[in-house]
């Protein structure tokens, strides 16, 4: 697959890549191969976004609540409780696996394994028919897919410090998020045109009985994720493998992780950032999980309307992530996150008070502009705080911090929704979580750019061959 066109954000990053930054990607790589490697890394965001967008937020979650569970409000609560359970498992596993991977050196084999498991579990969701008897089946597969998806993201994010020039970490992270939103847009549009609105879904090969056309969207997601993730495994450099056997990686990884956990309490700024980021990321994750459910339950939007709304939301989110990528490298990730969170809190509060569908859509599209910057700048800030050769472990702790309280947002949403019998009350808890994260983040010192001393990377094949 060729690198993006000169007009794309990723290519612009590569054109600005100075030769003296070559050691970050391996001195044995040409400038052209480094550019293609960065583009392939960003493309993985394009690939995996289909899962969150189609499965987690706008189509399958709504189908589960309406079609399988049969009650939108109660189904939304069950869905978010399941995501919270998956998050707790990720919280336990991510720092352990990350520390083991750092000792072994390679990250792509782990990422490939988790990606394939997500693809398989997602494909099997196709067999979840609109019947209450499939509730446990659908929830079990969703938990498996969510766990493997999130664990894969740990290793994907941990590649950023080793491939990005220190002065461009914010831009590359932001452009990756922007490509992710564009990927979400593309996958949604494909589902809309081929399956949801088509008179003969998928050229007559798919019917509408038992919501077959809606269920078939999971197959589109699985194929999308698999196909567009492959360039990373063949073109993006990976750190060299350690010659030690796996049992030695496990022993050393667990020992280093234990020492890190004992020492981290002395790093007050890092601890506060991890907690702050956990709070606001939990709010964002909850928003993604219930956004489609909220639009459907509160404003009575149909599948077609939700898809069109989602496409518009992905456009504004992608534009926001790409635009704020420059802001991150200009004023720093902390200031970028605080600007994004302040805007999210203001717009989110306004959304809670509107009853008109058009006003809701306008405010929600504005909200989308600031979702990407908060996520991308958080990844950038963690990258700047990460010591050399501890990338996977630190991003594992980043995931641990987020997932250790990942139950909080879904539980607060589900509890408020149940008590007040209103998804509007549930949505209010998301704004509160964002506010708590912003207040704590304000106490964290702004990080300096990461020194250009990351380990040399080499290009290897899919699965770490």
Descriptive keywords:
single chain; 465 residues; Growth Hormone, Chain: A; two-stranded antiparallel ribbon; 1% strand; disordered N terminus; disordered C terminus
Total of DSSP H or I helical runs spanning 4+ residues: 18
Uncertain regions: pLDDT < 50 for 5+ in a row? 1-28, 451-465
CATH superfamily: MFS general substrate transporter like domains
Can you tell me the number of structural domains? 1
Give the averaged pLDDT, no decimals.
81
CATH class: Mainly Alpha
Could you please describe the fold and organization of this structure?
Strands 1-2 form a two-stranded antiparallel sheet. The two termini are 19 Å apart. It is built from 18 helices and two strands. Helix 2 packs antiparallel against helix 10 and helix 4 runs parallel beside helix 6. It is an all-alpha fold and 465 residues long. The radius of gyration is 21 Å and the shape is globular. It has a single domain, classed as Up-down Bundle (Growth Hormone, Chain: A), CATH 1.20.1250.
Architecture blueprint of SSEs:
Elements: H1 9-15, H2 31-58, H3 60-69, H4 72-104, H5 108-124, H6 135-158, H7 160-163, H8 169-196, H9 212-215, H10 217-235, E1 237-238, H11 246-263, H12 268-299, H13 303-331, H14 333-352, H15 357-385, H16 391-404, H17 408-420, H18 423-441, E2 458-459
Antiparallel strand pairs: 1-2
Summarize the structure.
This protein is mainly α.
